[in-house]
Amino acid sequence: MAVTTPIDRSELEFNHGSFDADAFAAVALSSPQALTAVIDHTLLGPAVTRAQVETLCHEALRYRFASILVHPASVSISVGLLSGSGIPVGVALGFPFGASLVSTLRHEAATLCRLGARQFEMVVPLGQLKSGNHHAVHNAIHAVAPLVHHRGAILKVILETSMLTMQEKLLAAEIAIQAGADFIKTSTGFLGSGATAADIALLRGVAGARCGVCASGGIQSLAQVKAFLEAGANRIATDSSVSILGELGAE
User: Fold this and answer.
1) Are 234 and 212 spatial neighbours (Cβ–Cβ below 8 Å)?
2) Buried b (16+ CB within 10 A) or exposed e, 38-70
3) pTM above threshold 0.85
Protein backbone atom coordinates (compact mmCIF):
# COMPACT_ATOMS: atom_id res chain seq x y z
CA MET A 1 0.00 0.00 0.00
CA ALA A 2 1.10 3.58 -0.50
CA VAL A 3 2.46 5.69 2.33
CA THR A 4 -0.63 7.81 2.87
CA THR A 5 -1.25 7.48 6.63
CA PRO A 6 -0.99 10.93 8.25
CA ILE A 7 1.79 11.22 10.83
CA ASP A 8 2.75 13.82 13.38
CA ARG A 9 5.74 15.40 11.69
CA SER A 10 6.46 17.77 14.58
CA GLU A 11 9.17 15.42 15.85
CA LEU A 12 10.89 15.76 12.48
CA GLU A 13 10.77 19.55 12.41
CA PHE A 14 14.25 21.04 12.68
CA ASN A 15 14.55 22.70 16.08
CA HIS A 16 16.98 25.60 15.95
CA GLY A 17 17.40 25.45 19.72
CA SER A 18 19.08 22.05 19.69
CA PHE A 19 19.79 19.07 17.48
CA ASP A 20 20.10 15.49 18.68
CA ALA A 21 21.19 13.40 15.68
CA ASP A 22 20.54 10.04 17.33
CA ALA A 23 17.03 11.01 18.42
CA PHE A 24 16.23 12.55 15.05
CA ALA A 25 17.46 9.45 13.20
CA ALA A 26 15.45 7.14 15.44
CA VAL A 27 12.23 9.00 14.67
CA ALA A 28 12.96 9.33 10.94
CA LEU A 29 13.69 5.61 10.61
CA SER A 30 10.74 4.47 12.71
CA SER A 31 8.41 3.97 9.73
CA PRO A 32 8.14 4.59 5.98
CA GLN A 33 5.79 7.47 6.75
CA ALA A 34 8.35 9.13 8.99
CA LEU A 35 11.19 8.64 6.54
CA THR A 36 9.31 10.31 3.68
CA ALA A 37 9.16 13.47 5.80
CA VAL A 38 12.93 13.93 5.48
CA ILE A 39 13.45 12.91 1.82
CA ASP A 40 13.72 15.27 -1.13
CA HIS A 41 12.66 13.23 -4.19
CA THR A 42 14.98 14.35 -7.00
CA LEU A 43 15.07 14.35 -10.79
CA LEU A 44 18.09 16.22 -12.12
CA GLY A 45 19.42 14.20 -15.04
CA PRO A 46 20.57 15.92 -18.24
CA ALA A 47 17.71 14.69 -20.45
CA VAL A 48 14.61 14.76 -18.24
CA THR A 49 11.34 14.11 -20.08
CA ARG A 50 7.83 15.28 -19.27
CA ALA A 51 6.83 11.70 -18.54
CA GLN A 52 9.61 11.42 -15.96
CA VAL A 53 8.48 14.63 -14.28
CA GLU A 54 4.92 13.34 -14.15
CA THR A 55 6.11 10.08 -12.58
CA LEU A 56 8.18 12.00 -10.03
CA CYS A 57 5.17 14.07 -8.99
CA HIS A 58 2.84 11.07 -8.82
CA GLU A 59 5.37 9.30 -6.59
CA ALA A 60 5.62 12.39 -4.40
CA LEU A 61 1.83 12.45 -4.02
CA ARG A 62 1.70 8.74 -3.27
CA TYR A 63 4.47 8.65 -0.68
CA ARG A 64 4.26 12.23 0.64
CA PHE A 65 7.91 13.15 0.29
CA ALA A 66 9.23 16.32 1.96
CA SER A 67 9.66 17.93 -1.46
CA ILE A 68 10.65 17.27 -5.03
CA LEU A 69 13.72 18.76 -6.72
CA VAL A 70 13.77 19.50 -10.46
CA HIS A 71 15.45 21.67 -13.08
CA PRO A 72 14.02 25.16 -13.77
CA ALA A 73 12.38 23.96 -17.00
CA SER A 74 10.31 21.44 -15.02
CA VAL A 75 8.99 23.80 -12.34
CA SER A 76 5.74 24.88 -14.03
CA ILE A 77 4.50 21.37 -14.75
CA SER A 78 5.55 20.19 -11.29
CA VAL A 79 3.74 23.04 -9.53
CA GLY A 80 0.62 22.23 -11.52
CA LEU A 81 0.73 18.52 -10.72
CA LEU A 82 1.36 19.10 -7.00
CA SER A 83 -1.09 21.98 -6.60
CA GLY A 84 -2.99 21.74 -3.32
CA SER A 85 -0.88 18.84 -2.03
CA GLY A 86 1.32 20.82 0.33
CA ILE A 87 4.42 19.22 -1.22
CA PRO A 88 6.84 22.00 -2.20
CA VAL A 89 8.61 22.12 -5.52
CA GLY A 90 12.36 22.62 -5.23
CA VAL A 91 14.59 23.82 -8.03
CA ALA A 92 18.33 23.83 -8.71
CA LEU A 93 20.14 27.08 -9.57
CA GLY A 94 23.62 27.42 -11.06
CA PHE A 95 23.66 23.67 -11.36
CA PRO A 96 25.95 21.76 -11.23
CA PHE A 97 29.07 23.97 -11.43
CA GLY A 98 28.18 27.09 -9.45
CA ALA A 99 29.49 29.26 -12.27
CA SER A 100 26.48 31.49 -13.02
CA LEU A 101 26.52 35.29 -12.84
CA VAL A 102 24.95 36.64 -9.67
CA SER A 103 22.53 38.67 -11.78
CA THR A 104 21.48 35.46 -13.55
CA LEU A 105 20.90 33.66 -10.25
CA ARG A 106 18.75 36.50 -8.93
CA HIS A 107 16.69 36.80 -12.10
CA GLU A 108 16.14 33.06 -12.31
CA ALA A 109 15.24 32.78 -8.62
CA ALA A 110 12.72 35.63 -8.88
CA THR A 111 11.11 34.11 -11.98
CA LEU A 112 10.90 30.66 -10.43
CA CYS A 113 9.37 32.07 -7.25
CA ARG A 114 6.62 33.55 -9.39
CA LEU A 115 6.13 30.15 -11.01
CA GLY A 116 5.63 28.56 -7.60
CA ALA A 117 8.99 27.10 -6.56
CA ARG A 118 9.38 27.11 -2.78
CA GLN A 119 12.77 25.51 -2.25
CA PHE A 120 15.92 26.68 -3.97
CA GLU A 121 19.26 24.91 -4.22
CA MET A 122 22.28 26.81 -5.46
CA VAL A 123 25.80 25.46 -5.92
CA VAL A 124 28.46 27.41 -4.05
CA PRO A 125 30.66 29.38 -6.50
CA LEU A 126 33.39 26.75 -6.57
CA GLY A 127 35.86 28.75 -8.64
CA GLN A 128 35.61 31.75 -6.34
CA LEU A 129 35.97 29.54 -3.28
CA LYS A 130 39.04 27.80 -4.70
CA SER A 131 40.49 31.23 -5.58
CA GLY A 132 40.13 32.37 -1.99
CA ASN A 133 37.59 35.04 -2.93
CA HIS A 134 35.38 34.45 0.07
CA HIS A 135 33.69 37.85 -0.25
CA ALA A 136 32.40 36.89 -3.70
CA VAL A 137 31.13 33.55 -2.37
CA HIS A 138 29.23 35.31 0.41
CA ASN A 139 27.81 37.90 -1.97
CA ALA A 140 26.54 35.29 -4.43
CA ILE A 141 24.66 33.39 -1.73
CA HIS A 142 23.40 36.53 -0.01
CA ALA A 143 22.13 37.82 -3.35
CA VAL A 144 19.70 34.89 -3.49
CA ALA A 145 18.84 34.18 0.15
CA PRO A 146 16.84 37.32 1.06
CA LEU A 147 15.11 37.28 -2.31
CA VAL A 148 13.68 33.79 -1.86
CA HIS A 149 13.04 34.26 1.87
CA HIS A 150 10.94 37.34 1.10
CA ARG A 151 8.75 35.14 -1.08
CA GLY A 152 8.32 32.43 1.56
CA ALA A 153 10.90 30.01 0.11
CA ILE A 154 14.04 28.44 1.58
CA LEU A 155 17.59 28.18 0.28
CA LYS A 156 19.93 25.19 0.35
CA VAL A 157 23.56 25.76 -0.60
CA ILE A 158 25.39 22.82 -2.19
CA LEU A 159 29.07 22.76 -1.22
CA GLU A 160 30.29 19.84 -3.38
CA THR A 161 32.30 18.58 -0.43
CA SER A 162 34.20 15.85 -2.28
CA MET A 163 35.97 18.54 -4.32
CA LEU A 164 37.01 20.62 -1.33
CA THR A 165 39.86 20.47 1.14
CA MET A 166 39.04 20.27 4.82
CA GLN A 167 39.69 23.99 5.22
CA GLU A 168 37.51 24.80 2.22
CA LYS A 169 34.66 22.70 3.61
CA LEU A 170 34.81 24.55 6.91
CA LEU A 171 34.99 27.94 5.21
CA ALA A 172 32.26 27.21 2.67
CA ALA A 173 29.89 25.95 5.35
CA GLU A 174 30.42 28.99 7.56
CA ILE A 175 30.14 31.44 4.67
CA ALA A 176 26.90 29.83 3.47
CA ILE A 177 25.35 29.99 6.93
CA GLN A 178 26.42 33.60 7.44
CA ALA A 179 25.01 34.50 4.01
CA GLY A 180 21.55 33.12 4.84
CA ALA A 181 21.45 29.44 3.88
CA ASP A 182 18.65 27.43 5.49
CA PHE A 183 20.50 24.19 4.69
CA ILE A 184 24.04 23.32 3.75
CA LYS A 185 24.20 20.33 1.43
CA THR A 186 27.01 17.97 0.50
CA SER A 187 26.83 17.36 -3.23
CA THR A 188 25.16 17.82 -6.60
CA GLY A 189 25.53 14.12 -7.35
CA PHE A 190 27.24 14.95 -10.65
CA LEU A 191 30.76 15.83 -9.50
CA GLY A 192 33.13 13.99 -7.24
CA SER A 193 32.18 11.07 -5.02
CA GLY A 194 29.03 12.35 -3.30
CA ALA A 195 28.07 12.34 0.35
CA THR A 196 30.04 10.71 3.17
CA ALA A 197 29.14 10.32 6.83
CA ALA A 198 32.37 12.09 7.76
CA ASP A 199 31.40 15.16 5.72
CA ILE A 200 27.91 15.17 7.22
CA ALA A 201 29.39 15.10 10.73
CA LEU A 202 31.77 17.92 9.76
CA LEU A 203 28.97 20.09 8.38
CA ARG A 204 26.78 19.46 11.41
CA GLY A 205 29.73 20.45 13.59
CA VAL A 206 29.92 23.79 11.79
CA ALA A 207 26.16 24.30 11.58
CA GLY A 208 25.25 23.22 15.09
CA ALA A 209 21.61 24.19 15.38
CA ARG A 210 21.91 27.21 13.11
CA CYS A 211 20.70 25.51 9.94
CA GLY A 212 19.85 22.16 8.40
CA VAL A 213 22.28 19.68 6.86
CA CYS A 214 21.29 17.76 3.73
CA ALA A 215 23.03 14.59 2.53
CA SER A 216 23.07 14.20 -1.25
CA GLY A 217 25.05 12.38 -3.90
CA GLY A 218 25.15 8.64 -4.50
CA ILE A 219 22.53 7.74 -1.89
CA GLN A 220 20.90 4.49 -2.98
CA SER A 221 20.30 2.41 0.15
CA LEU A 222 18.61 2.50 3.53
CA ALA A 223 21.96 1.75 5.17
CA GLN A 224 23.40 4.95 3.71
CA VAL A 225 20.38 6.95 4.82
CA LYS A 226 20.73 5.59 8.36
CA ALA A 227 24.44 6.44 8.46
CA PHE A 228 23.87 9.98 7.24
CA LEU A 229 20.99 10.68 9.63
CA GLU A 230 23.02 9.37 12.55
CA ALA A 231 25.95 11.56 11.47
CA GLY A 232 23.79 14.67 11.68
CA ALA A 233 21.77 15.09 8.47
CA ASN A 234 18.16 16.15 8.84
CA ARG A 235 17.36 15.93 5.14
CA ILE A 236 18.21 13.33 2.49
CA ALA A 237 18.14 14.10 -1.24
CA THR A 238 18.04 11.13 -3.60
CA ASP A 239 16.55 9.82 -6.82
CA SER A 240 16.33 6.35 -5.22
CA SER A 241 13.63 7.40 -2.77
CA VAL A 242 11.05 4.77 -3.67
CA SER A 243 13.46 1.82 -3.54
CA ILE A 244 14.84 3.04 -0.20
CA LEU A 245 11.34 3.17 1.22
CA GLY A 246 10.83 -0.36 -0.05
CA GLU A 247 13.71 -1.48 2.17
CA LEU A 248 11.83 -0.05 5.13
CA GLY A 249 8.65 -1.91 4.20
CA ALA A 250 6.70 0.57 2.07
CA GLU A 251 4.77 -0.83 -0.89
Assistant:
1) yes
2) bbbbbbbeeeeeeeebeebbebbbebbbbbbbb
3) yes
Q: Any idea which architecture 20-247 has in CATH?
A: Alpha-Beta Barrel (3.20)
Q: What is the pLDDT along the chain (251 residues), one digit of tens a residue?
A: 344 444 444 445 544 456 899 999 999 999 999 999 999 999 999 999 999 999 999 999 999 999 999 999 999 999 999 999 999 999 999 899 999 999 999 999 999 999 999 999 999 999 999 999 999 999 999 999 999 999 999 999 999 999 999 999 999 999 999 999 999 999 998 888 889 999 999 999 999 999 999 999 999 999 999 999 999 999 999 999 999 999 988 76
Nearest CA among 240, 202, 208 for reference residue 221:
240
DSSP output for 34-80: HHHTTEEEE---TT--HHHHHHHHHHHHHHT-SEEEE-GGGHHHHHH
Q: What does the DSSP assignment read for the chain?
A: --S-----GGGGS--TT---HHHHHHHHTS-HHHHHTTEEEE---TT--HHHHHHHHHHHHHHT-SEEEE-GGGHHHHHHHHTTS-PPEEEEESTTT----HHHHHHHHHHHHHHT--EEEEE--HHHHHTT-HHHHHHHHHHHHHHHHHTT-EEEEE--GGGS-HHHHHHHHHHHHHHT-SEEE---SSSTT---HHHHHHHHHHHTTSSEEEEESS--SHHHHHHHHHHT-SEEEES-HHHHHHHTT--
